[in-house]
């Protein structure tokens, strides 16, 4: 789905870079600035530093003079406003609105401007850091997204708000899979565990810990212990190495 993030009258260069980074982490790259404070904001050192590697987003970023230019080709407009407007669009949480948008409920409620979002695109609008979005800009939108925050302190940094909206929108579109920290390991099968236990039984007998004539329930208990552990092949090799070292130490003392 075509997605665009629009920053209006941004005054802090660092927020532009941080917003670019927020978009890239969620797989978006269409960023438009409307009349930012600094005409050269995309080349400022603070912008580049805060982008932290999202330089491709900055390179694709456009700077325009008016909001109309920024919204060209977009039909579903989402304002971001902490305070509801009396005569503005409905105020919803991002997740609530995205659910309605994705299941097609908005047309039935008369909220859309015509045309499916998949065909025309969705734009998220963010106002300047000090004053937020103007009433005029909010009024032209289909919805005012309000991020649920602490009722006594709802002030979000601009780039943080961009990150939250980008994350929720990515989740609505399907999200990304979590990458496992470690590669998938191969579990040892029953025969490999049995072979290791036989090796340990020999080693424990050699060091005098196990009496072969009266083993009692030591080996069955070790068997249950290792079964609960769901040993990997690498762990089997380690345990066999320990058994081998025990046998070698016992032989050296004979």
What's a concise summary of this model?
It contains twelve helices and seven strands. The chain is an alpha/beta fold and 254 residues long.
Overall 3D geometry?
Answer: elongated
Number of helices: 12
Helix content: 40-55%
Structural category:
alpha/beta
The residue ranges in which pLDDT falls below 50 over 5 or more consecutive positions are 108-118
Averaged pLDDT: 89
The largest beta-sheet arranges its strands as 3-2-1-6-4-7-5
One letter per element, helices H and strands E, the order comes to EHEHHEHEEHHHEHEHHHH
What is the gyration radius calculated from CA atoms? 31 Å
Report the strand count: 7
What's the layout of helices and strands?
Elements: E1 3-8, H1 13-25, E2 31-34, H2 45-51, H3 55-60, E3 62-64, H4 67-70, E4 76-80, E5 91-92, H5 94-102, H6 105-108, H7 117-120, E6 122-126, H8 135-139, E7 143-145, H9 158-173, H10 190-206, H11 218-229, H12 233-253
Parallel strand pairs: 1-2, 1-6, 2-3, 4-6, 4-7, 5-7
Can you walk through the features of this model?
This protein has 254 residues and is of the alpha/beta class. It is 46% helix and 11% strand. It has twelve helices and seven strands. It has helices spanning 13-25, 45-51, 55-60, 67-70, 94-102, 105-108, 117-120, 135-139, 158-173, 190-206, 218-229, 233-253, and strands at 3-8, 31-34, 62-64, 76-80, 91-92, 122-126, 143-145. A seven-stranded parallel β-sheet has the order 3-2-1-6-4-7-5. Strand 1 (3-8), helix 1 and strand 2 (31-34) form a beta-alpha-beta unit. Helix 10 (190-206) packs parallel to helix 12. The N and C termini lie far apart (76 Å). Mean pLDDT is 89; it is low at 108-118.
């Amino acid at each position: 789905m075509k997605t665009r993030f629009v920053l209006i009258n941004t005054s802090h260069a660092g927020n532009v870079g941080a917003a670019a980074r927020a978009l890239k982490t969620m797989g978006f790259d269409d960023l438009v600035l409307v009349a930012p404070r600094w005409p050269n904001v995309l080349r400022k050192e603070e912008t580049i530093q805060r982008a932290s590697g999202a330089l491709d987003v900055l390179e694709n970023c456009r700077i325009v003079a008016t909001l109309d230019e920024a919204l060209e080709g977009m039909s579903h407009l989402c304002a971001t406003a902490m305070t509801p407007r009396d005569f503005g669009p409905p105020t919803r949480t991002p997740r609530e609105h995205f659910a309605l948008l994705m299941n097609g409920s908005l047309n039935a409620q008369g909220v859309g401007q015509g045309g499916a979002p998949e065909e025309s695109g969705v734009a998220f609008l963010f106002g300047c850091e000090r004053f937020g979005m103007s009433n005029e800009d909010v009024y032209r939108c289909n919805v005012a997204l309000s991020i649920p925050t602490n009722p006594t302190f709802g002030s979000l940094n601009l780039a943080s708000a961009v990150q939250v909206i980008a994350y929720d929108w990515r989740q609505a579109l399907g999200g990304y899979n979590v990458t496992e920290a470690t590669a998938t390991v191969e579990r040892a099968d029953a025969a490999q565990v049995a072979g290791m236990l036989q090796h340990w039984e020999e080693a424990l007998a050699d060091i005098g810990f196990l009496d072969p004539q009266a083993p009692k329930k030591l080996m069955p208990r070790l068997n249950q212990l290792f079964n609960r552990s769901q040993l990997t092949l690498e762990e089997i090799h380690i345990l066999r190495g320990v058994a081998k070292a025990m046998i070698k130490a016992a032989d050296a003392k004979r």
